Amino acid sequence: MSETASPFRRGRLLRIAAALLVLLALAAYVVVQYVSGGGGPPRCLVRAADAADGDSPTYEMTPEQAANAATISAVGTTRGLPERAVTIALATALQESALRNLDHGDRDSLGLFQQRPSTGWGTEAQIQDPVYSAGEFYDHLVKVPGYSRLPLTVAAQRVQRSGFPQAYAKHEPDATLLAAALTGRSAATLTCTAPTGAEPGDPAKVRAALVRDFGPEVLPGTDAAGRAGASGTAAVVTVPVPATTGGSENGGSSSLRGWELAHWAVAQSTALRIDEVRYAGRVWSAKNTRSANKGWQRTRVSEQSARSDAASGAASGAGSGADSGLVEVRIRTAQ
To answer: What is the pLDDT of residues 121-133, one digit of tens each?
Structure first.
């Protein structure tokens, strides 16, 4: 071996060794993330309820997008509007802002629906309030004759007056999936992963957000800010669901309302630091969620919890089975 070749080969060996160390460190990181439940940044997933797992249409989004979608849906259903109206609103927001509450846009356009203060949609602050901007969209939509029977692009364009009206059509499949889950028609179809090392949540903020999106009636006994009269422990917000005929998963307005509230809570889980949601014998738990595909699990209510549920049903005047969970949605914040 020549004197000039030896340093070159030693340098090459050092580079190979350094590369191997990097690969080993990366592999170790992946293993730790898997074991600890971390899987990258949090994300949310909605899927069709009536398709096989391998063939089920899905739509993936960030927690910000999921939270905004849940608010848009809540505003629509609180006004008594049908699922079709929610679908139109979601498709419009997907096109206009990708479900992000933007502080910029074409000319003076702002917010989820890119509404313009200069054309009478409201002030800048109002338009950047998702509840207000969604309400404005619905106010204009219901003035369109027969909007629910029109093609989605036509209905959306009558409200938006966009320069690219056909662009709304490509979002209809995703908006349809979202609307089915967020209005409660499709049970246990929306789930989110949770951020690692989440900070503690505040039940008062959860109550305030519920009242903001659904109105004071969602929590009987509360005021417009969600204060006072809420049931549950210090870390749990209990949302009553009026009992009606029909199963908890397959029918009845109770089921729709319950799953609407449950999916809303999961969609808001990152923003509000929610780590568990229970309804109708199922539980979404942030601590057990490594993948957005495994968010809702069937659970057996303990004997003590069953007695508590039965007592809650009796107190509200609505009978419930011991393991049904039909009369309330339980939202627990991170501690």
So the answer is: 999 999 999 999 9
